[in-house]
DNA sequence: TATGAATGAGATTTCATTCAT
DNA sequence: TATGAATGAAATCTCATTCAT
């Protein structure tokens, strides 16, 4: 399996660094090869083409989110607590890796539509986990049972994503992780059962 | 003033159509010129360069959002109602113009970072209006007075934007405007005063 | 006759200024028109095309050289003195008009071959006057009767031209006119030591 | 070193041919590439840009002049004989290569000022050799010790250059090399009759 | 596996010239 | 005569990908 070959990860990490430092449009294959310490042609022994590097990069890094969140979901926290953990994890991973944050929030969005659709389908697995939390919350009576799962998922992901992007665009000059609690609160309020109307 | 000359709008509208139909990276100046019914060189009598077309396009169309929302804000609706109107307007404008929706949600995001920052500064005016609604809601006691305005704004814009993008990516196969009420409800719940905890 | 119409000289003078200030390749017709205070289209009422402006400019300015030299030739100076006068005049005219010097020595040489050939044919009249002086010198026994007139003319013009060009390229930081005497001396006497003076 | 790679000279020679045949302004990179038998992009592996091709071309060919003249200078000819050898060499090199003559005398002068200044600084090495001959002649008492070296150099180079240019413009229809002696004679002795020989 | 020299398609922008007013 | 908005042809350079070694 290609993923086990040493240069596979080497090239992906080089891509993250090069894209973060030079920007998506200045991240030529030759620059990535140089950063990875391999020849240009070697890239093509591990990846079908440049787009494949980016998708693989996204798949690889998305695991960092999915593995953790899967753990939380399997655990016996309440749905609201699971959501908090998920948001915290999302913020922590990106706050811990500046390059990755820049790449996922800013640079990778400059790609063509075709690539974006492929990235979206990688993202789907993550979003499905969000859906599971929402459904569990509704079933357990913690969230309003009349919620539109898709809309709520969009609210959650939209809010989280916009929060991270704004943070990156502001040069990460405030603490992202500490925003997890208030963001969670805003979302939970939105999902919460109406006490009395 | 260039904006009053007939070909200014003509070229911008042509750009929207061409970008929507062919995608950002296939929207060559010559294609836009042809669609606008002018010579390639004529484009440069109205716009400094290709990037300038896109920024102008965004500025021009952003007015469709800002003017309406400014009206609502000036009116005597409650903050919650103003927010609903804003969301409705946002969805209506984009639902009514397929090309524009594709361009703003998908194509214009493929531009380089530099252009995106310029687009963001145009967007700022719109976001400021959202801030005004949030603040008014907090002052009038309709929203929780302890809210972090920036976070709430990010939630609102993030949710609305994600909702529209998902709708566009799903080929607009369901009704966007009817999502205004439930999206608004989700947001209001998030902002609402805690009745009892 | 077009040359008598007021805007003819106005446009030529504008061309000299614009070319001197912005360089040949940045001397667009629209810039010349603006400097001359006329509309772009007006240029074409006086000149067939851009090339025609330049040739006319050269013809016009070449008169400054030819008229004077014709006078000297008609006078009763010795051939050697006539040559000195000619060189002096050449240097004086260019030293007195910085713009003209830059245009003739540097900018006008960047034109395409076709234009240069036309300019050369304008120059021919001037070179013919040089030939007359040489021939007269030979006939009067002041110059060696075995001289190849064409070669001598090339030496004279080549030396004079190279001297002016070097002076312009050195930002005209020394006095050009005072070089007339030694240049004349070199030409008349050559480098060889006079066996007896 | 790039100069040792076979395609470096191949491209330069192709440039000389293409420029001579089609003229400077019609010497597109793609034409040069085709003539050199390489792909357009290959040009840019050897040269920074189009201007770099021209400067390199000039540097490369200038060696043909400099090497020979350096030899003569090192030899034990008299200064006057060295000068004759230099002029002869200058004429021989250009007479032997029609394309090169057209390129250096006509086409390369149509370039913008910036490039011309760079070419001039390459030329400087050659002119320095001329200066050496002049100084040696003055020291050895062969030339007038009161000469202004710069002026003499301008006379020599101006005369030689003008002679070659005229020859090229006249379609090289007479023998250039046989002009070396009379040109040398003119320079050495001037037009003045020797009072005693 | 690994290399890296070579490939070649493709698009923005300028500016001399025209022509309807 | 005079205007100036509109025209449209034309060329440099980049960079993902290949393939002979």
From TrEMBL, chains A, B, C, D:
Pfam families: TetR_C_4 (PF08359), TetR_N (PF00440). GO terms for molecular function: DNA binding. Keywords: DNA-binding, Repressor. Residues 5-65 form the HTH tetR-type domain. Residues 28-47 bind DNA. SUPFAM superfamilies: Homeodomain-like (SSF46689), Tetracyclin repressor-like, C-terminal domain (SSF48498). It comes from the Bacteria. PANTHER family: ACREF/ENVCD OPERON REPRESSOR-RELATED, ACREF_ENVCD OPERON REPRESSOR-RELATED. This is Fatty acid metabolism regulator protein. It comes from Heyndrickxia coagulans. The lineage of its organism: Bacteria, Bacillati, Bacillota, Bacilli, Bacillales.
